[in-house]
Amino acid sequence: MSYVLQVALRIKPESIDAFMKQVLENAAAARKEPGCRHFDVLVDPKDATQAMLYEIYDDEAAFVAHQATAHFKRYLAEAVPLLDHRERRVWRLA
């Protein structure tokens, strides 16, 4: 069973560059985790303040392990405050 996470993001306009640097670092590190199958950072081509994360993990336990990593904790502490909005949705493959 796969655990799929979609995170809709609205970045503060003055923080786009700083946020993108941090989110891309987090994504690169997450892709190296054994339970992470896919991690994309998507940006609206017409509005750089709108982004989305699309993540696939083996299961919920792999996602929980991801949340315990140093790079994820750094992302939460440093990147999330650069956002105006963050909405997470969990999906499963049909």
Any overview of this molecule?
There is one protein chain. The protein contains 3 helices and 4 strands. The termini are close together. The protein is globular. The protein has a 4-stranded antiparallel beta sheet with strand order 2-3-1-4. Helices cover 35% and strands 40% of the residues. The chain is of the alpha+beta class and 94 residues long. The longest helix is centred in the N-terminal third of the chain and has 16 residues, at 16-31. The model has no long low-confidence stretch (mean pLDDT 97). The chain has a single domain (3-91), classed as Alpha-Beta Plaits (2-Layer Sandwich).
Question: Can you describe this structure in just a few lines?
Answer:
With 94 residues, this protein is α+β, with helices and mostly antiparallel strands. The protein contains three helices and four strands; from the N terminus they run βαββααβ.
